[in-house]
Write a structure and sequence with these properties.
Helix content: 25-40%
CATH architecture of the largest domain: 2-Layer Sandwich
CATH topology of the largest domain: Uridine Diphospho-n-acetylenolpyruvylglucosamine Reductase, domain 3
Number of strands: 19
Largest sheet: 8 strands, antiparallel
Strand content: 15-25%
CATH class of the largest domain: Alpha Beta
Number of helices: 18
Shape: globular
Distance between the termini: 14 Å
Structural class: alpha+beta
């Protein structure tokens, strides 16, 4: 692909002004490395438009010269999905200045947000209006709406509210030719052919640039109850979840499964944490139930459900937080697992999913298979039991350094992905494909799925300028433009 010409850069600089156009290393460099620090690229310039019209003009100008664009929101991708390649040909397109909440209608339960709105800011605005946006994750202080839409983000409340696909009611986006798709209207029924909104959700910026989204809001939490329960096996944990859903109903919003190994890491490496229960339990469940205002507290119902679960042997011990501070302390244990793993040493991390009914057996059997194949490794698998999402992390043998990940990491990941594919699962549950999983997606994604993805990409973005080298596996023809760009480091 061609590098941007001097004439193009001059036109972009004139269009965006000094606040929206930068080439200085001090301005561009901070955005060229991914969230995990594994990918580093180059960009000819950093573009920061403030309106959808600016985005459309940028894309139109770049399309005319076939210059690639890499869209970026909060730069929180876990798979290098918002990092340019090393060629320096691409322009980095930041949506961070497009950060207005255009409207928030509590009665309709809708918020229309521009792509650069930070998730935490949306949470605050919705709460001030007596509503909430029911998706949260660890990067909520920097993740943006556009990125959440483009990666079909999940988080800890998928059990009740689903991923972004269920929360997005409409999308506004600039397509690869510079045209504006105005799809923000939250229609309940619309049979005008292919659903472009759903096509753009999870496309990782490869089919267009999301500039705004209409999002579903739900009633604010009136009261919540948070509990921590010890269980003997993942199978018992799944039975406990089904028991709670039967007794407590759909107020169950979160059900996180935490192995003893993960809790041990947090207690060892994160100051100020303590175990919620006496004794050590092989597995732990973090449970949250929440109800809207003017609805009876879920605490009594959760207390009764856990009591009956104790009687029938589903749990070995349990406690309910007596205050918001105790509830937050329990959630801190779950949210600190990644931090504790990082402090403990090297790990090969995997974001995978399997059918919910199969998750308990997979947790045990896959861990045994990986530990048997790679002596000395320790599997730390935890996650969202209610939706089958497993963070399957393989910790390096003790005293191993970064060389272990470079030498064994690829083989470990291949085995984990083979196991999850054999189980009918997915190698990407909520983080996307990006560039990190591109080769594995090509290997395991399935010929039919990949052929359809390539065909859609070719139809909407024939020049291949939208976030090249991400999500779409290259074709086998080495002379094909998509293949060439996807192979670049």
């Amino acid at each position: 692909m061609p590098s941007p010409s001097s004439a193009l850069l001059e036109r972009l600089a004139a269009l965006l002004g000094p606040k929206g156009f930068a080439r200085e290393a001090t301005a561009v460099e901070p955005w060229l490395t991914d969230w995990r620090g594994r990918f580093h690229g180059k960009a000819a310039a950093l573009l920061s438009p403030s309106t959808r019209e600016d985005v459309a003009a940028i894309v139109g100008l770049c399309a005319a010269e076939a210059v690639p664009l890499v869209p970026q929101g909060g730069n929180t991708s876990m798979v290098g999905g918002a990092t340019p390649d090393g060629s320096g040909e691409a322009l980095l397109l930041s949506l961070r200045r497009m950060n207005r909440i255009r409207s928030l209608d509590p009665a309709a339960g809708l918020a229309t947000c521009e792509a650069g709105v930070i998730l935490a800011h949306l949470h605050e605005a919705a709460l001030a209006a007596g509503r909430r946006f029911p998706l949260t994750l660890g990067a909520r202080g920097s993740a943006t709406v556009g990125g959440l839409v483009s990666t079909n983000a999940g988080g800890t409340q998928v059990l009740r509210f689903g991923t972004m696909r269920r929360l997005v009611q409409g999308v506004e986006a600039v397509l690869p030719d510079g045209s504006l798709f105005e799809g923000l209207s939250p229609l309940k029924k619309d049979n005008r052919g292919y659903d472009l909104t759903q096509l753009l959700i999870g496309a990782e910026g490869t089919l267009g640039i999301v500039t705004a989204a209409s999002l579903r809001l739900v009633p604010a939490v009136g009261e919540r109850a948070v509990a921590w329960a010890g269980v003997e096996t993942p199978q018992a944990a799944l039975k406990l979840l089904r028991h709670l859903e039967t007794v407590v109903g759909d107020s169950i919003e979160g059900f996180e499964l935490v192995p003893a190994s993960a809790l041990d890491l947090v207690l060892e490496h994160v100051p100020g944490t303590r175990a919620p229960l006496a004794g050590r339990h092989p597995w732990n469940a973090l449970i949250e139930a929440a109800v809207p205002m003017a609805v009876a507290s879920p605490e009594k119902a959760l207390y009764s459900a856990l009591g009956s679960a104790l009687e029938i042997g589903l749990v070995t011990d349990a406690t309910i937080a007596a205050s918001d501070a105790q509830a937050e302390a329990m959630w801190r244990l779950r949210d600190s697992i990644s931090e504790a793993e990082k402090k403990d040493g090297i790990a090969a991390k995997h974001d995978i999913s399997v059918p919910v009914a199969d998750m308990p057996a997979f947790l045990v059997e896959a861990a045994e298979a990986v530990e048997a194949r790679f002596p000395g490794v320790r599997v730390n698998a935890f996650g969202h039991l209610g939706d089958g999402n497993i963070h399957f992390n393989v910790r390096a043998p003790r005293s191993s350094g970064p060389a272990w990940l470079e030498g064994e990491g690829e083989a470990v990941t291949a085995l984990v992905h083979d196991l999850v594919t054999a189980a009918g699962g997915s190698i990407s549950a909520e983080h996307g494909i990006g560039q990190m999983k591109l080769a594995e997606f090509a290997r395991l994604g399935g010929a039919t799925r990949i052929a359809a993805i390539r065909a859609i990409k070719q139809a909407l973005d024939p020049a291949g300028i939208m976030n090249p080298g991400k999500l779409v596996p290259p074709v086998e023809d080495p002379h094909d433009g998509l293949a060439e760009r996807a192979r670049r480091p």
